[in-house]
Structures are given as C-alpha cells and as structure tokens.
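Task: complex structure prediction.
Instruction: return structure tokens for all chains below.
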Amino acid sequence: MSSHVAHHFDDASQQFDAARLGMWIFLATEVLFFGGLFTGYAYYRTLYTPAFIEGSRHLDLVLGTINTAVLLLSSFTIVLAIRGAQTDNRRATIALLAATIVLGTVFLAIKGYEYSVKFEEHHVPGASFSLGETHDEAVEPRHVEMFFALYFGMTGLHAVHMIIGVGVVAVVCVLAWRGHYTSQYYTPLEITGLYWHFVDVVWVFLFPLLYLIR
Amino acid sequence: MNNVQLPKRHYLNADYNVWSWLLSTDHKRIGILYMISLTLFFFVGGAAAVLFRLELMTPGGDLVLSETYNKLFTLHGVIMVWFFLIPSVPTVLGNFFLPMMIGARDLAFPRLNLASWYLFVGGGLFTVWAMLTGGVDTGWTFYTPYSSTYANTRVMLTAIGVFVSGFSTILTGMNFIVTIHTMRAPGMTWFRLPLFVWAHYANSLIMVLATPVLAVTLLLIGMERVLGVGVFDPNLGGDPLLFQHLFWFYSHPAVYLMILPGMGVVSEVITCFARKGIFGYTFIAFSSLAIAVLGFLVWGHHMFVSGQSVLASLTFSFLSMLIAVPSAVKVFNWTATLHKGSISLDTPMLYALGFIGLFTMGGLTGLFLATLAVDQHVHDTYFVVAHFHYIMVGGMVMGYLAGIHFWWPKMTGRLYPEWWGRFSAVLIFFGFNLTFFPQYLLGYLGMPRRYHVYPDEFQVLNVMSTAGASILGVGYLIPLVYLIWSLRYGKIAGPNPWQATGLEWQTPSPPPTFNFDETPSVTERPYQYSPWTPQTAPPPEPELAAAETTSP
Ligand SMILES: [Cu+2]
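Output:
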C-alpha cells in the first residue's frame, strides 16, 4: 500500500485529499472556461431570439434525447465502478468501466452522425453555409449561422472533453484489470469519476439550451 | 562569520547533469529554471521598451515606422505581462519558498509543476518567435477589430502562445492551493501561515478562476477568424463590446496577479528589517482575499468610454473605489509595522519601501481613473500608462527584486554584495520616477498613448522619460551582474543571515533536496522579532514556565 504514496506525502490519506482537491479546482477552472461560451450564447440568444429558435429547430431532438440518456447512464455506471473498487469487487469494476467506455463511445458516435448530417445540410458555419428550408421567413440567416457557430463551438468543446474522458477511463480500466485498485487505494478511479460527472453536467446544460428551448 | 560553511549535500549539488535539471521535479530547481527563463523574457521585453523610448525622444517619427512602433509596444506589453509580471514572484519565489514556508517537502503535484514550466517556456518561446518574425500590432489587449477584421499580423500565432502559457498559470495556481490546503507541517495552522502564503493563496484563486476566461476569449477570436462568423464583428452580427467584457473580466483580476504576490514579499521583508512583528496580521491576510474577490467585480472601469450604460459605469466606478480599501489596509498596516521598529536599510528593505511608496502613487491615481468624469479626460492617455507602470513596475518588479535579494542567500547559500545592492536599488527608484512621473503630466496635458509622433510641446517631458528609462535599464543590469558574480565570490551566508523567523530559515542554505532534515513542527506565530522567536522554537519547559509565573 505504501508504494502508492509519493515521497513528499506523509500518508495515503493526505495524497488522496490532495488529488481530489486538485480535481475539484481543475473543474472550477473548467466551469469558467465553458462560462465564456455560455455568456456568448446567452447574450446573442437575447439579441437574436427568433434566429436562435430557428437554428434550434434544425437540430435532431430525438438523437439529442438519446444522447442525454446515454450520458446519464454512463455516469451511473462509473459510480458503480467506484463502488466496485470500494468493495474489492474487481470484476464488477472492470465490467462497469468497460460499460462506461462503450456508452461514451456511443455518445460520440451519435454526435458524429449529427455533425455529418449538419455538414450535408450546409449548416456548418463558413463560406458554404445555407439555411435551406426555414420555419420562419423573417430571420436573418447570418444570425442563424451564429447559432450554429456556438452550437459547434460548445458541443465540439464538450466532445473534446468526452474523448479525453474515454481515454482516461480506458487507462484506469486497464490498470483495474491489472489489479492496481483495492478498497485501500482507488484515488485515480475517484478523480476520473469526478471528471466524468463534470463533463456529463456540462451536457445537461447544453442539451436544453441548444435543443429544448425553442 | 569565518567558520560558516556551505552544507556538504544540498539541492544544487545533488546531481550535476543537464537532465537532472530539465527533468527535475524538485520545486526548488524548477523555481531556478523559471528564474532563468523569466530573466531572458524580461530583457527581451525591456529591449523593445528601449527602442520605443528612443523613438519618443523626438516629436517626429525618425527611428521606426508607425507599424514597427505598434509592434514594439505590443511585444513589450505581451512579454512583460504574461511572460514576466504574472509569473514573476509566484513561479520563482512561490515555487521555491511556498512549500518551505509551510514545512512541506515539495508541492502537492511535483510532476505537474515541471509540466507547467514546459508549457510556460514552450508558449513563451513560440510567442517571442511569432512576434519577432512577423509581429503583432494590436497592443497587449488584442482588442477587436484590430485582432479580427483588420488583423494583418501574427495575431493568431501569438494568441496560441499566450493560450498555452495560460495553462501553465492555471496548473501553478491549482498546485499552490492544494499544497496550502493539504501539505502544511504539524502545527502550521492557517493563522500561523506567513503572509506570503496568504497572498499566494488569494493569487492562486485568481489564477485558477480568471485565466480560463482569457483562454475562451482567444478561442472565440479564433472562431470568428477561421469560420468568418460573427462573434465580435458588428458587420456579421457580433458585438465588439462582448470582447471587452470577456477580456477585462480576465484582465482586471490579472492586474492583481501582478501585485498580490509582490505584497506578500513586502509583508515578509518589512517585518524582518523593522525587527518588529507585523501590525494587523489578520487584516493583511483577509485583505488579500478581499482583493481577490472584489477584483472580479470591477472590470467595467476599462469601458467607461466604450458605450457601456451609465448605470453600469456608475456601479463599476463605485466598486473600483471599494477595492482601494483592502489595498489601503495593507499600506497602513505596513506603515504601522515600521512605527517604532528598529529599521535597517538593507537592499531588500530599500526595495520594499520603494514598493510601498510607488504602489501608493499608482493606487491613488487609480482612484482618479475610477472616477467617471476624470476618466473621460485622461482615458487612453499617458496618465493611464504611468498609473499602471507605478503598480506593475514600481510595485511588482520592486517586490520581485526585494524577494530575490531577501531569499538569494537561501537559494544559493551566498550573500550578494550589499553596497552594490543598495546602490542599484536607489538607482532603480530614481530612474523609475524619472521615467514615469513625467508621463502622468504628459497624460494630463492630453498626450494619447500608442502614438509614435506627437506635438513639439511634449518633447521636454518625453526626453526626461527616456533619460529615466536609460537609468532604469542600467539599474536592472547591475543586479544581473553582481548576482551572477556572487554565485562564486559571494560571502557564505549561513542558514539565517537576516535572523528571520520563518521555517525556510531554519534549514541549511542552500536547503537539502527534501528541504528539511526532519519535518519541522511549528509552535509559534510568524514574525516574532522582538524577542526573536523562530516558528519552530521549542515550547518552554513546563516546570520552568510554571516557576516563572509563580515566583514574584
Ligand atoms: Cu482594471
């Protein structure tokens, strides 16, 4: 057990506290990082409400809802994985971490599919942007383009966090398989879980803002 | 003093090869790495200042074209703000001494600390390369539309460099907060922490919470430029004011990144060289936190003439006045500490006193600028330039130099030459005032900043300023020379040359790799100078103490 304690810590519990606090502070940083984008979204939505509603109608509500469910489920599996480590149930830990990886990948695949549809419909901001069929004739296409820029910016940044998350969960899964974690030591699992929940919570805000309020 | 010797084994001679430095996770060695890189960046930023101060000697544009001039002041601003001032005290002195002051063997995340240095140096060298080969002409504020619609220079590359180094700042702040929370030695309670540590705690909060907003702002500029979609460009439906809001939401708190750590140094130095306990310890500690919190609520004072609503301007004006209170609390407490102290004017003390005077000047003129009517008159003039240089150079650089001299014996085991130290401290103070005081007058008379030609009647004051800058430049070169000289020829310092009370002085100089031979246990408050009681003083013998209280 003591082999897990780095030389500059006195004991395992000090090391655990440090790691967990470090992750919380990192997440505070992340909140402010996403906060800039949320501020931009809130401001321009207020300025150009009809255009943002128009943009939102071009998103696929069914896929968005499925993705929300997938992500919430993955948060549940990672909690159970940590529970597995706490009760020294290694097989459950590995299986639940693997399930988390699968769910994360499914989320990314659906997101990728949504992106490719948007690409075909010319809804990606840039020179080839066109609105196509509109629900509301009066809206300025340029302002709908701003909605899509924020949509891709915010969900893209979220997806980057998901990709990193899946990678990290894969690493701890391999380490769990090699028997690194016990009820005495599971710090990496715990802080990976914190990160995963955070990414999940970001989506819980993104989903209503982008898909639901129309 | 002749029998003092360097310890046999210490962090400097633990290992000699290059990789033992470049891959070191020892917070002390990383502090030294930062010191070397910051010194390089400081002289690059300084060289740009030399060039534009020369240009400003004459009213016409004789030396450089206006475009080159714009690139020079941008280079100066970007390098000095992000690659010298913000990292200066935290990454060098904070890295080195924060763990030692709380009795820890290292920061909580040593490898992350090393990674921060690589991010910093990588981002810094990339930025310098982008700015030297192509240049940027937006000013350090990257205001749109200079940085978006009308950008024809290396704005994006420079922004990427700043973005990368921002992560280094965030990681350092995170490391410090976790270290202060979890790594304190037995007995080191929150109210026994040196004020340097409190200042760094408040400072780290700002680092962690403000820097990501700069990152996302730079990201949004990138989005606008790459996709051609309106974010800040009004022609495309964006709003340039949003840029200013986001930028100053970061950059006003960042102003406190450029002063709080310096305040921490001054609190240590003043009490040591006045041989007197600090006056109002809790007030100074909490004023740091107050500054960190209020610092997030005043950003709009940069936008009084940008078309912000009058109500917003009034609110920001009021809040900006309010933040002067915790700053003044510090100045009054330092002054009260000096009162009836037995003051010795060694080099660190000269710098610390310089800090207090110049910071007070900078702070008071900040109140002028926070006043709506006065700001209309002096906005974007040399008055503003003088104001923030009094805080950043008069304050932070003085604080940095005070700290470097104060802790030099601990870092290297040797003393710097005291006469040269005092001489250059006085020279820097004199050169600084000659450089920047005339700029207050220039601004008040109406000379706008960021122009390389100006009406003839401003020449006298500009020549004074350039003359001062030359003295200042020489003043900065002297310590560079004698500090390097002292590495070999300086007198051996011994563990505690200043008879200071902090934990870092209760271990050999230079310290061993793990800082203390055994983990210190803390029994005392900091700053007990009369009578001198170090923080690790053994508790009085119980019978003896009892005897003292009972005997008449
Ligand atoms: Cu400000």
